[in-house]
Amino acid sequence: MLDEVVGLGAVTMLGVLEQAYFSLQVIHARRKYKVSPPTTSGPPEFERIFRAQANCSEYFPIFIAILWTSGVFFSPGLSSVCGLLYLYGRLRYFWGYAESAQGRLAPLYFSAKVLWVLIGFSAVGVFLTFCRVYLDVDLLQQLGSALF
User: For residue 57, what are the contacts with CB-CB under 8 A and spacing of at least 6?
Assistant: First the structure.
Protein backbone atom coordinates (compact mmCIF):
# COMPACT_ATOMS: atom_id res chain seq x y z
CA MET A 1 0.00 0.00 0.00
CA LEU A 2 2.72 2.51 0.93
CA ASP A 3 4.57 1.85 -2.32
CA GLU A 4 1.46 2.91 -4.22
CA VAL A 5 0.97 6.23 -2.42
CA VAL A 6 4.56 7.42 -2.03
CA GLY A 7 4.04 9.82 -4.96
CA LEU A 8 1.01 11.30 -3.24
CA GLY A 9 3.05 11.73 -0.07
CA ALA A 10 5.84 13.43 -2.01
CA VAL A 11 3.41 15.81 -3.71
CA THR A 12 1.81 16.58 -0.35
CA MET A 13 5.21 17.42 1.15
CA LEU A 14 6.07 19.62 -1.85
CA GLY A 15 2.74 21.37 -1.39
CA VAL A 16 3.49 22.05 2.27
CA LEU A 17 6.91 23.41 1.35
CA GLU A 18 5.30 25.60 -1.31
CA GLN A 19 2.88 27.00 1.26
CA ALA A 20 5.84 27.74 3.56
CA TYR A 21 7.59 29.54 0.69
CA PHE A 22 4.49 31.68 0.09
CA SER A 23 4.31 32.57 3.79
CA LEU A 24 7.97 33.52 3.85
CA GLN A 25 7.38 35.80 0.87
CA VAL A 26 4.68 37.63 2.84
CA ILE A 27 7.07 38.04 5.78
CA HIS A 28 9.71 39.41 3.43
CA ALA A 29 7.18 41.77 1.80
CA ARG A 30 6.03 43.01 5.23
CA ARG A 31 9.61 43.98 6.04
CA LYS A 32 10.33 45.44 2.60
CA TYR A 33 7.18 47.59 2.50
CA LYS A 34 7.04 48.23 6.27
CA VAL A 35 3.61 46.71 6.85
CA SER A 36 3.38 45.46 10.44
CA PRO A 37 0.93 42.74 11.49
CA PRO A 38 -2.02 42.63 11.86
CA THR A 39 -2.29 45.23 9.08
CA THR A 40 -3.11 43.66 5.72
CA SER A 41 -3.14 46.77 3.59
CA GLY A 42 -0.25 48.75 2.24
CA PRO A 43 1.38 49.42 -1.09
CA PRO A 44 -0.12 47.52 -4.04
CA GLU A 45 3.05 45.43 -4.30
CA PHE A 46 2.55 44.17 -0.75
CA GLU A 47 -1.19 43.62 -1.17
CA ARG A 48 -0.68 41.47 -4.27
CA ILE A 49 1.82 39.24 -2.49
CA PHE A 50 -0.43 39.03 0.56
CA ARG A 51 -3.50 38.14 -1.55
CA ALA A 52 -1.56 35.60 -3.62
CA GLN A 53 -0.49 33.80 -0.44
CA ALA A 54 -3.98 33.97 1.05
CA ASN A 55 -5.62 32.69 -2.14
CA CYS A 56 -3.18 29.78 -2.39
CA SER A 57 -3.77 28.92 1.28
CA GLU A 58 -7.54 28.96 0.77
CA TYR A 59 -7.34 26.34 -1.98
CA PHE A 60 -4.72 24.13 -0.32
CA PRO A 61 -7.10 22.01 1.83
CA ILE A 62 -9.31 21.39 -1.21
CA PHE A 63 -6.28 20.37 -3.26
CA ILE A 64 -4.97 17.96 -0.60
CA ALA A 65 -8.36 16.30 -0.08
CA ILE A 66 -8.95 15.86 -3.81
CA LEU A 67 -5.35 14.75 -4.48
CA TRP A 68 -5.63 11.92 -1.96
CA THR A 69 -9.17 10.94 -2.91
CA SER A 70 -8.15 10.75 -6.55
CA GLY A 71 -4.97 8.88 -5.68
CA VAL A 72 -6.62 6.28 -3.46
CA PHE A 73 -9.73 5.64 -5.55
CA PHE A 74 -8.58 6.36 -9.12
CA SER A 75 -4.82 6.29 -9.80
CA PRO A 76 -1.97 7.25 -7.47
CA GLY A 77 0.48 7.82 -10.33
CA LEU A 78 -1.80 9.91 -12.50
CA SER A 79 -3.02 11.85 -9.47
CA SER A 80 0.57 12.57 -8.41
CA VAL A 81 1.40 13.93 -11.86
CA CYS A 82 -1.70 16.13 -11.75
CA GLY A 83 -0.70 17.23 -8.26
CA LEU A 84 2.71 18.33 -9.52
CA LEU A 85 1.06 20.24 -12.36
CA TYR A 86 -1.28 21.93 -9.87
CA LEU A 87 1.61 22.97 -7.62
CA TYR A 88 3.49 24.32 -10.63
CA GLY A 89 0.39 26.30 -11.63
CA ARG A 90 0.04 27.75 -8.14
CA LEU A 91 3.69 28.76 -8.07
CA ARG A 92 3.28 30.52 -11.42
CA TYR A 93 0.07 32.08 -10.05
CA PHE A 94 1.92 33.42 -7.01
CA TRP A 95 4.77 34.87 -9.07
CA GLY A 96 2.36 36.31 -11.62
CA TYR A 97 0.15 37.93 -8.99
CA ALA A 98 3.19 39.37 -7.22
CA GLU A 99 4.06 41.17 -10.47
CA SER A 100 0.56 42.30 -11.48
CA ALA A 101 -3.09 41.42 -10.93
CA GLN A 102 -3.34 40.48 -14.61
CA GLY A 103 -0.32 38.17 -14.28
CA ARG A 104 -2.26 35.77 -12.08
CA LEU A 105 -4.97 34.91 -14.61
CA ALA A 106 -3.38 32.35 -16.96
CA PRO A 107 -1.84 30.32 -14.10
CA LEU A 108 -5.12 30.59 -12.17
CA TYR A 109 -7.06 29.09 -15.08
CA PHE A 110 -4.42 26.39 -15.56
CA SER A 111 -4.42 25.31 -11.91
CA ALA A 112 -8.23 25.41 -11.79
CA LYS A 113 -8.41 23.05 -14.79
CA VAL A 114 -5.99 20.64 -13.13
CA LEU A 115 -8.03 20.77 -9.93
CA TRP A 116 -11.21 19.96 -11.89
CA VAL A 117 -9.43 17.00 -13.51
CA LEU A 118 -8.55 15.71 -10.04
CA ILE A 119 -12.15 16.24 -8.93
CA GLY A 120 -13.33 14.25 -11.96
CA PHE A 121 -10.86 11.44 -11.23
CA SER A 122 -12.03 11.41 -7.61
CA ALA A 123 -15.71 11.22 -8.57
CA VAL A 124 -15.15 8.40 -11.05
CA GLY A 125 -12.94 6.47 -8.63
CA VAL A 126 -15.33 6.80 -5.70
CA PHE A 127 -18.32 5.89 -7.90
CA LEU A 128 -16.64 2.77 -9.31
CA THR A 129 -15.47 1.67 -5.87
CA PHE A 130 -18.92 2.29 -4.38
CA CYS A 131 -20.52 0.16 -7.11
CA ARG A 132 -18.01 -2.66 -6.63
CA VAL A 133 -18.11 -2.68 -2.80
CA TYR A 134 -21.75 -1.91 -2.03
CA LEU A 135 -23.63 -3.00 -5.15
CA ASP A 136 -21.40 -5.93 -6.08
CA VAL A 137 -21.12 -4.52 -9.61
CA ASP A 138 -17.70 -4.16 -11.20
CA LEU A 139 -18.41 -1.63 -13.94
CA LEU A 140 -14.86 -1.71 -15.29
CA GLN A 141 -14.96 -5.49 -15.68
CA GLN A 142 -18.38 -5.30 -17.35
CA LEU A 143 -17.18 -2.56 -19.68
CA GLY A 144 -14.09 -4.60 -20.57
CA SER A 145 -16.24 -7.67 -21.27
CA ALA A 146 -18.61 -5.66 -23.45
CA LEU A 147 -15.78 -4.14 -25.50
CA PHE A 148 -13.69 -7.28 -26.00
Answer: 19, 22
- Residue 52 has, within 13 A of its CA and on its CB side, a CA count of 35
For residue 51, indicate whether it is catalytic.
Answer: no
Q: Which of 31, 51, 90, 92 is an active site residue? A: 31
Active site residue 90: no
pLDDT in tens, 36-81: 999 999 999 999 999 999 999 999 999 999 999 999 999 999 999 9
pTM (two decimals) = 0.94
At how many degrees (to 10) do helices 105-134 and 139-147 cross? 90
Long-range contacts of 88-97 (CB under 8 A, 24+ apart): 89/114, 90/18, 90/56, 90/59, 91/18, 93/52, 93/55, 93/56, 94/22, 94/25, 94/52, 94/53, 94/56, 97/48, 97/49, 97/51, 97/52, 97/55
Distance CA 55, CA 47 (A): 12
